[in-house]
Amino acid sequence: MNVIIFGPPGAGKGTQANNIVKKFNLHQISTGDLLRNEVKNKTQIGKDIENIISKGDFATDEIVSELIKNAVFDIKKKNKLIFDGYPRSLNQAKILDSLLKESKQKIDFIFFLNVKKETIIKRIEKRKILEKRADDDLTTILKRYDTYMDTTKPVLDFYSKNLNFYEIDGDEKIEEISNKIEQILSV
Prior knowledge:
Blueprint: E1 3-6, H1 13-24, E2 27-30, H2 31-40, H3 44-53, H4 61-72, E3 81-84, H5 90-102, E4 109-114, H6 117-130, H7 138-160, E5 165-169, H8 174-186
Parallel strand pairs: 1-3, 1-4, 2-3, 4-5
């Protein structure tokens, strides 16, 4: 089973993806984690990424697609993938479709965590106390939220026509969201 879980920055995608990974034995593919690892390892791609995200922008499709391609074609992860926060644009959705077809895979479930801006602000403030992340600056997050909502509309339109698309109220408690997702995946 391959799953996509997407939503704005601070929506809880990572938390939900972690729960799904544990419960259904999938491999989490988080573009955020992939990008942060490149930055942490100070690769050339990492330096480019750091420059881009420090401005509140997203990494280019070319950078992200190369990192995603490696995961899709990893034989150990075939049909056991959960894409956390990817795709973020219509172009990325089409690239993912192409990569999956090429590797003889498909997406079985698509979850969109729809979260209000006020909820994101509360979560980021709480997360700043619990764990320090360089990308948790509130101004940057709010810019990324607005950018995300603008660029994601075509992705929502692209996927929402599918029978396996589920919009989840991301303002609910973590456990309630997890329960809804697990019920859908268990059918």
